[in-house]
């Protein structure tokens, strides 16, 4: 089935360009377009898309606030930001508000398609430039926050810690299932339990804890 996307940007030319890129992916369908944040929230509630792709600077309601409202009222919709801005404050608020993707308009079209597929599949996706910001920030904080993160994950079972580490590595539920030789439904249950035990809102926030606790495995 096609990945259903809501696209929100106040510039019609940008919407047209992004729409064309997503259509070229073959498995993505733009089901609604919004010109401002308030309209984006209403359309998300009406269409319940798989992904809401939001610009940050929009009239009536900015994309960050719209994303938070969509996360709150349409829990089955993943939120990804698409913007020209990669400042730390925007990234921190977006991820803190429940977004699981942060993409730059200056990125490669293939990156945009990959990001939509990733967040639709339950994984997190950050533009490489954004990821660099986040990783640098983690490095600066990790020494001071590592002990706290390790204390938080100590309440998890060994299997839950293993799943958390793979979430931190950016793997989707199907990829985790294949890695651990589990069925996908079992992985979903583990991820839900981990989020609840850590008292975090989404996979991105869980990944931060995993990174700070030293649970993220080295790349193969």
Automatic annotation (TrEMBL):
<dbReference type="Pfam" id="PF00196">
    <property type="entry name" value="GerE"/>
</dbReference>
<dbReference type="InterPro" id="IPR011006">
    <property type="entry name" value="CheY-like_superfamily"/>
</dbReference>
<dbReference type="Pfam" id="PF00072">
    <property type="entry name" value="Response_reg"/>
</dbReference>
<dbReference type="InterPro" id="IPR058245">
    <property type="entry name" value="NreC/VraR/RcsB-like_REC"/>
</dbReference>
<keyword id="KW-0597">Phosphoprotein</keyword>
<dbReference type="InterPro" id="IPR039420">
    <property type="entry name" value="WalR-like"/>
</dbReference>
<dbReference type="InterPro" id="IPR000792">
    <property type="entry name" value="Tscrpt_reg_LuxR_C"/>
</dbReference>
<feature type="modified residue" description="4-aspartylphosphate">
    <location>
        <position position="55"/>
    </location>
</feature>
<keyword id="KW-0805">Transcription regulation</keyword>
<protein>
    <submittedName>
        <fullName>Response regulator transcription factor</fullName>
    </submittedName>
</protein>
<keyword id="KW-0804">Transcription</keyword>
<keyword id="KW-0238">DNA-binding</keyword>
<feature type="domain" description="Response regulatory">
    <location>
        <begin position="4"/>
        <end position="120"/>
    </location>
</feature>
<dbReference type="InterPro" id="IPR016032">
    <property type="entry name" value="Sig_transdc_resp-reg_C-effctor"/>
</dbReference>
<feature type="domain" description="HTH luxR-type">
    <location>
        <begin position="149"/>
        <end position="214"/>
    </location>
</feature>
<dbReference type="InterPro" id="IPR001789">
    <property type="entry name" value="Sig_transdc_resp-reg_receiver"/>
</dbReference>
């Amino acid at each position: 089935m096609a990945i259903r996307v809501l696209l929100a940007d106040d510039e019609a030319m940008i919407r047209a360009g992004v729409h064309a890129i997503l259509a070229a992916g073959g498995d993505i369908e733009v089901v609604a377009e919004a010109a401002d944040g308030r309209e984006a929230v209403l359309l998300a509630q009406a269409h319940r898309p798989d992904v809401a792709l939001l610009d940050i600077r929009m009239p009536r309601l900015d994309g960050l606030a719209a994303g938070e409202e969509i996360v709150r009222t349409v829990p089955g919709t993943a939120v990804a930001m698409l913007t020209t801005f990669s400042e730390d404050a925007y990234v921190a608020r977006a991820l803190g508000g429940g977004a699981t993707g942060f993409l730059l308009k200056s990125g490669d079209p293939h990156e945009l398609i990959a990001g939509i597929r990733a967040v639709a599949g339950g994984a997190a996706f950050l533009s490489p430039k954004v990821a660099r910001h986040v990783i640098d920030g983690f490095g600066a904080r990790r020494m001071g926050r590592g002990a706290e993160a390790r204390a938080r994950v100590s309440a998890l079972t060994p299997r839950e810690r293993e799943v958390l580490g793979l979430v931190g590595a950016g793997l989707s539920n199907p990829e985790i299932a294949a890695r651990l030789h589990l069925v996908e439904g079992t992985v979903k249950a583990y991820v839900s339990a981990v989020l609840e035990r850590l008292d975090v809102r989404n996979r991105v926030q869980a990944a931060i804890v995993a990174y700070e606790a030293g649970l993220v495995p080295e790349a193969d």
